[in-house]
Design brief:
The structure is a single chain. By secondary structure, the chain is an alpha/beta fold. It has a domain of about 300 residues: Amidase signature (AS) enzymes (Alpha-Beta Complex). Helices cover about 40% and strands about 15% of the residues. The chain contains 16 helices and eleven strands. An eleven-stranded mixed beta sheet has the order 1-3-2-4-6-5-10-11-9-7-8, sandwiched between helices. Helix 3 runs antiparallel to helix 4, helix 10 packs across helix 12 and helix 10 crosses helix 13. It is globular, with a radius of gyration of 21 Å. Bound molecules: glutamine (GLN).
Length: about 500
């Protein structure tokens, strides 16, 4: 095995200790990832590479080390960033034609926090256009390919999806071309691609990370989070990302605990809820089996698992597909050809708007804008939007009630493993069903993680989801670590 391969097989925690012991330099670590990254180009996971800037950041990290500065665990770590985070001086596209040529003059708070912690930017990853999608099929820059291949079943021999919308981030981490990546999760966009690509993805509590400088999709749901190859790495990354930000009024003014401190504490005495409404009639047997297995692992480690009921679960998805498009239609009104990116002229101002928006947005984004505008329109506002907000409160209350009896909730992350590129594209409802298990926690603003557990019969990864109380990411990390140790998922695509 060459040294290049070894460096790219490390976890962030391992790389950080090698860096601080001087066994490797940040520049060497970076170069190893750049080499793997070239091989990974065929996945189409990266929209923009920032190699010169990365070399500069890596050398600065090496300087700090040589000067004897005390360094945090993200210092010198090469990561990738979903192209939905504004990065100062680096093209930011949201995977949309409408942002053509947009180079932000400011840096998102979360990415700034990572650079302040010494992380190195490899580049900006591909995503569904404006983060709308579950398969990374709606990007203006084309689909992302999952580094995994199916050995049997309907997807055998075909390129398969990486999941979405943070599919580029998931694929790049699974392909060992970055030690970690960040994504955003509005209804499942960190957890579902993590599950499809066999990595760990964590959506923190709404308000844990600042949304400032993240291109908005649905503001009451959007949340940034880490994606990496083990639970500890996601905890390390979240530590650097999180914190109150006066620039975002929805960011919580709550102290950020040491997420790694309790990681190894186990789950003895922990009460785990298994929601009966998450059992679907047509759920693949292997998804049910891995869920049952997860329950056994937690019980074996000393947790007690009990069945719970979240009666409003069935309404979460329809409710999400009213609230999210409503907020999206309002957020996306700013792309008018005047302020950002693309402009296609017309004879009148209205015509210019129409030409620009017609040519700049892809079909899924247009669909969401139309649904959103409809549910917000005068005659339908109460029937759809207000109703959905009421149901959303009931969904949140379901969780609140359950968390009197249990500390964490265990479910599958997605109803299936990854599917072939092109599948479900002509059936938006089938595509929306991908989010059935991830959307409820999003609607309630709760933290949740996806942990890879095993490969299914086709050889594709399956993940399990843990949902926790608001601002109780610690408990999720602790339980996730137990699942991870028991699953011992060491497969490499
Ligand atoms: N797949 C969901 C959607 O299309 C969730 C997307 C997300 O979390 N950004 O809206």
């Amino acid at each position: 095995m060459s040294i290049v391969v070894e460096l790219t097989q490390l976890t962030i925690a391992e790389a950080a200790s090698m860096l601080s012991a001087g066994h490797v330099s940040a520049e060497e670590l970076l170069v190893a990832h750049l080499e793997v990254g070239e091989n990974a180009d065929k996945l189409n996971a990266m929209i923009t590479r920032t190699t010169d800037r990365a070399l500069k950041q890596a050398r600065q990290s090496d300087h700090r080390r040589v000067n004897g500065e005390s360094l945090g665990p993200m210092d010198g770590i090469p990561i990738a960033v979903k192209d939905l985070f504004c990065t100062k001086g680096v093209k930011t596209t949201a995977a949309s034609k409408i942002l053509e040529g947009f180079v932000p003059s400011y840096e998102s708070t979360v990415t700034q926090n990572l650079w302040s912690a010494g992380a190195v930017l490899l580049g900006k990853t591909n995503l569904d256009e404006f983060a709308m999608g579950s398969a990374n099929m709606t990007s203006y820059f084309g689909p992302v390919k999952n580094p995994w291949r199916a050995r049997s079943g309907p997807a055998a021999g075909k390129d398969i999806v990486s999941g979405g919308s943070s599919g580029g981030s998931a694929a790049i981490v699974a392909a060992r071309a970055a030690l970690g990546a960040i994504g955003t999760d509005t209804g499942g966009s960190i957890r579902q691609p993590a599950s499809f690509c066999g990595i760990v993805g964590m959506k923190p509590t709404y308000g844990r990370c600042s949304r400032w400088g993240i291109i908005a999709f649905a503001s009451s749901l959007d949340q940034a989070g880490p994606m990496a190859r083990c639970v500890e790495d996601t905890a390390i990354m979240l530590q650097a990302m999180a914190g109150h930000d006066p620039n975002d009024s929805t960011s919580a003014s709550i102290a950020v605990p040491d997420f790694c401190a309790a990681l190894g504490d186990g789950v003895k005495g922990l009460r785990v809820g298994i929601p009966k409404e998450y059992t679907m009639n047509d759920m693949p047997a292997e998804v049910q089996a891995t869920w049952d297995q997860g329950r056994e692992w937690l019980e074996h480690a000393g947790a007690t698992c009990t069945e719970i009921s979240l009666p409003y679960t069935d309404y979460a998805l329809p409710c999400y597909y009213i609230v999210a498009p409503a907020e999206a239609s309002s957020n996306l009104a700013r792309y008018d050809g005047v302020r950002y990116g693309l402009r296609i002229d017309g004879d009148t101002l209205d015509e210019m708007y129409q030409n620009t928006r017609g040519a700049g947005f892809g079909p899924e984004v247009r669909r969401r804008i139309m649904i959103g505008t409809y549910v917000l329109s005068a005659g339908y506002y109460d029937a759809y939007y207000v109703k959905a907000q009421k149901v959303r409160s009931l969904i949140a209350r379901d969780f609140e009630t359950s968390f009197f009896d249990v500390d964490v909730i265990l479910t599958p992350t997605a109803p299936s493993s990854a599917f072939a590129i092109g599948e479900k594209m002509d059936d938006p409802l089938a595509m929306y069903l991908n989010d059935i298990f991830t959307v409820p926690a999003s609607m309630a603003g709760l933290p949740a993680i996806s942990v890879p557990t095993r490969l299914d019969g086709a050889g594709l990864p399956l993940g399990l989801q843990l949902i926790g109380r608001a601002f109780d990411e610690d408990t999720i990390f602790r339980a996730a670590k137990v699942l991870e140790d028991a699953a011992h998922f060491k497969c490499i695509p």
